[in-house]
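worker-3 :: picked MFS domain-containing protein
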Amino acid sequence: MPQNTLLRLWQIALPLGLYSATSAVFFPVSQSFVFWKICTHSTDITAIPVSACTNRSIVSSDVYLQTEANRIFMLGNIAMTLTAVFSATFLGKLGDEKSRKAALAIPLVGLLLADAVLIAMTAIPAMPAILYVLSETIFGLAGGYVSIMSSCFAFGSHLSKTQNVDRSKAMAVLEGAIGVGGILGFLATTFIRKSEYLLAYALMAFVHVVCLILVLILTDIKPEPVESSISTKTAKLPFATRIKDKFVAWIPLFDSNAPKNKIILLVSCFGCSFFAMIGSVQIIFYYLKHRFHWDLTLFSFLKAPHQFMSTATILFLFPYLKSSGTSDTTLALIGLLSRFFGHLWLIFAWNTYSVYLWVILDGFSRFSPTAIRSLLAHSVESDQQGRIFSLVSVVELFCSLLAALIFHTLFPASIEFGFPQTSFVIMAAVLLFPIGVFVFGRQYIGGKVDIQETKTQDEAIPLNEVKTGSSSE
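worker-3 :: tokens ->
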């Protein structure tokens, strides 16, 4: 890769990595902060004095606090998801037609406004926890994390095209930035102590200012004056048409010669895997807080090595296995089994120390979404790639909303009837369907792809050629 191109890639990878680090800090800090905020405003209901709200052994199992915290995060997830659908589509159009840099800068400005709300909540004790939903709505209206990730990858992909660089290598740089940033973020979270929320949010806001400055000094990539008729037509679609296409662009797949039943099975498997993953992400902190009285520090000591292992396996082991001739069906099954046994272990873990085996069991789970995307890409013609991944994005959106509604409601309810593991039992049960498909329908799902891959290693799609969906996977 030419040195100038590599430098420009790192100019976009640096703000992406910094944002990834703050994202790793944000979620557990915010879950802990919202729980504490509710506690300090609910002394008349819970009879827990404000001075005891940082005592995890006292507050962790309180049903009212768990219910309210999960309700607020459910509303926040829904607000973020629904608003980001429209704003991200607008920003995608802006990036295609006007400026990649502007499409990346706008969500960072929105992120700073959301930071301001959270800083105000920590500085002013009287402000209620429900304002967390306002901060998520503001960020979602500005594009949300989806726009930051997609704009960075669009920037890198466009750069690789204009500089005649292998796209997979360019994407690998950005994937590495996300992984390393996440690891550093979770490690940094271990140093955040109780009641240091104001400092944590202030530091995150400072890093976001740095990210915005780095983006503003980037050399912009603007649309080329001469493009193919297809890309020009796509770029100039009206905003309303883009919104419509985001949800229905995949429908022509089922009017074509594409293997419809195979696509339905693969998308269903992807949806089950994503549903179990996003459900775990949403409630695992509160789950461990309730069962083992965990706090922010203990949770970070779990997530940092997990992030390291999952990043290492997807960036290094996955491509190695692919180049060695391992089929996508096998890799998908490995990932699904890893996710299944990880969820199963969280059900049966009996104390704090036993939970840490989850790091190893779940460490290969990112194989499944990447391999399934590859199988989907092989199932359709090249001119239908956009449609198939449009369908995947709709499934991700639906599963995110469904998981938020189900698990943020079910988990506090399951505490009341004495079996808080219920949510993870459901997630593990949902994974049995895709596991069964890849065990018993292996020849149908991936037979032709497997034959092609055994003929030549050159036909194996590199990891980053198919990494087009949510980064959380």
